[in-house]
Design brief:
- The protein is built from seven helices and seven strands; from the N terminus they run βαβαββαβαβααβα.
- It is an alpha/beta fold.
- It has a seven-stranded parallel β-sheet with strand order 4-3-2-1-5-6-7, with helices on both faces.
- Helix 4 links the parallel strand 5 and strand 6.
Length: about 170
């Protein structure tokens, strides 16, 4: 089974268009037969992703460190427990065909950057995308451009991250 991994916010009080975009892309991934993988908690967009995938009848895998057990989403098809956050990221990526960074904070950035580094090192072969709803990832794109301009990153390595402005563009990468 193909796997779509979603990195996303654990914050509830975010712009509604971010969660609506999450619902749309999860529905599209479910319609294409993907198992949906996320951090597996009830919090913020993670909860939205799990709810939407469950509503679609998809397999929903949550990966959580044991200390987050009180936050586990009740509608997961499969739960993978880890001991650390580092192990969590590794387990979430296992077998992922596509990784999508939805709007999120420092946890999402940590997950995204580690995945990009692993891609650069040939240790992750899936597609990596960031959904730039409302220009959310414009500052990240500017930072990556700065890295390229200062030779801290090659243009080819920057191109490993597909920053897309709409759910429709993201659907093309599924």
């Amino acid at each position: 089974m193909r796997r779509a991994l979603f990195f996303c916010s654990s914050v509830k009080e975010i712009a509604p268009e971010y969660n609506e975009a999450a619902r749309q892309i999860v529905r599209a991934a479910c319609a294409r037969g993907y198992e949906i993988v996320s951090g597996g908690t009830v919090k913020g967009t993670m909860g939205v992703v799990c709810d939407e995938a469950a509503d679609c009848g998809a397999s929903v895998c949550g990966v959580l460190p044991r200390f987050m057990e009180p936050l586990v989403h009740p509608r997961l098809t499969r739960t993978v427990w880890t001991d650390t956050m580092s192990e969590r990221k590794e387990k979430m990526r296992e077998g992922a065909d596509v990784v999508v960074a939805l709007p999120g904070g420092i946890g999402t950035m940590d997950e995204l950057f580690e995945t990009l580094v692993l891609s650069k090192l040939g240790r992750f072969g899936g597609t990596i995308a960031a959904l730039n709803i409302g220009g959310f990832y414009d500052p990240l794109e500017a930072l990556l451009d700065h890295f390229v301009q200062t030779n801290m990153l090659t243009a080819a390595d920057k191109a490993r991250l597909h920053i897309v402005d709409s759910v429709a563009e993201l659907e093309e990468l599924l």
